[in-house]
């Protein structure tokens, strides 16, 4: 299996603090699938820059509060 991408995220934590938002609710808000959100949370998938900004916007935070580069 491939190496995990060097980008970590706080999506699961931010969903919890946003009224326990589900993966499905977040996926619908940004136009992606629940499976993609799950893969991001498990650091198996790095989103496009546009998707990353959309996720940050949903939570009302800066992109750096959601994603961190660990390269």
Automatic annotation (TrEMBL):
<protein>
    <submittedName>
        <fullName>Helix-turn-helix transcriptional regulator</fullName>
    </submittedName>
</protein>
<dbReference type="InterPro" id="IPR001387">
    <property type="entry name" value="Cro/C1-type_HTH"/>
</dbReference>
<keyword id="KW-0238">DNA-binding</keyword>
<dbReference type="InterPro" id="IPR010982">
    <property type="entry name" value="Lambda_DNA-bd_dom_sf"/>
</dbReference>
<dbReference type="Pfam" id="PF01381">
    <property type="entry name" value="HTH_3"/>
</dbReference>
<feature type="domain" description="HTH cro/C1-type">
    <location>
        <begin position="11"/>
        <end position="66"/>
    </location>
</feature>
